[in-house]
Amino acid sequence: MLVLNGPNLGRLGCREPGIYGTTSYAGLVEACRTLGKELGLDVEVRQTDDESELIHWLHEAADFTLPVVLNPAALTHYSYAVRDAAAQCTAPLIEVHISNPQAREDFRRVSVVSPVASGTIAGLGIGSYRLALHALATRAPNRVSCDA
User: Fold this and answer.
1) Which are the catalytic amino acids?
2) pTM here?
3) Alpha-carbon torsion 103, 17, 129, 50, what sign?
4) pLDDT of 9-49, one tens digit each?
5) Where are the beta strands (DSSP E) in the chain?
């Protein structure tokens, strides 16, 4: 299972803590791995500021039928390339956001990813990731290869 994070999420804890909280990115990674282990999931957490790298990771998820927790960050609002890569995923993909985009600036209220996601969880801090992992633990196999 992949937990994929887009631009600026590596700066958690120091980036606008009033919006994104005080948990560091390392804290988010540890929380996801710990909960994943408790749920019997093999969780790999990744972060990139590079749109093309995020797209390659989504292709990997599609090729290996890996469930995904995806926080596309700012790419949520305009990256049709990320949206198209997410649409190729055949295992569940849950879009997450730490803040509530609906309570923020107008441009953040549109997600091009939501229509192709299995579900969206937002506004609960890193708790959004916890809920997504719980949801995927009950919905999807841990890892299945397309070649198997």
Assistant:
1) 20, 97
2) 0.88
3) positive
4) 999 888 877 777 778 999 999 999 999 999 999 999 999 99
5) 2-5, 44-47, 68-71, 93-97, 119-122
